Write the structure tokens for this entry.
Amino acid sequence: MTNEINLRTNKSEYNAGDDIYGVVYLRINTPTRGRGVRIRFKGYEKFNYEGKRNIENEPPVCYSDHRDYVSLDEILHQSDGPLSMCITYYPFKIKLPMEIPGTFHARHESEELRWDARVEYILEAEVIDASKALATNQKVSVRQSLQRELKAKDAPAAILAKYEDSSFFGLFTSAIDVTARLHDHIHRTGENARLRVIITNNSNVIVQSIKLQLRRSIYLTCPQMTLGVQVQENVGHEQSIDMVRFPKGLKNAIP
């Protein structure tokens, strides 16, 4: 039988400032030079960018950046001699800093441009000085924190859009007001984002439908870059509200 090391944590997702509780399980079945057990926890931001130049035969423009947010190295157990045959475990606790970003990954690749940006948190466990690599790791997911002025229990602000219709050479103006408000600040992948849409139509224009589309806006910067990379993309499927059936709008959910 081979030697084994496994890693378990108490949760799959954490908030900034949480405690990560976990256990390293160790099973030694054959002789090893290993003299202890160590855990490492690291969190970092990494950005790689490669874009073609407009000048022919010129090498591509390449940028990369790396920033560390967390770096921990802790010995859970250490002995004077090699580890003996055993089945045992070593508990641990890691305190997440308050001011760290949430886990994130986005990438793009085309003929003209290629980039990859990510924020990752990785937990590693290994046997110290083992003759053969005896280690394991797992990714830790950290939720994105709200801005300081926002609270999870507060209702998001409503957004108002106005369309004005002029008639008789601009002498008469009427308006259509559209008010939209999400029910919650925080949404997780796979959940429905509840949205309330209210239509106030004081014009002669007949609105037949309104389309809803969730969009993601990302702005990536690098110290060596004179310009950042701005990305706007659709997320999920477009939905349509039938304004003939629901002239005053409705509460809808965007998956």
Q: What stands out?
A: DSSP finds no helices and 16 strands in the chain. The CA atoms of residues 159 and 180 lie 5 Å apart. The longest strand covers residues 61-78.
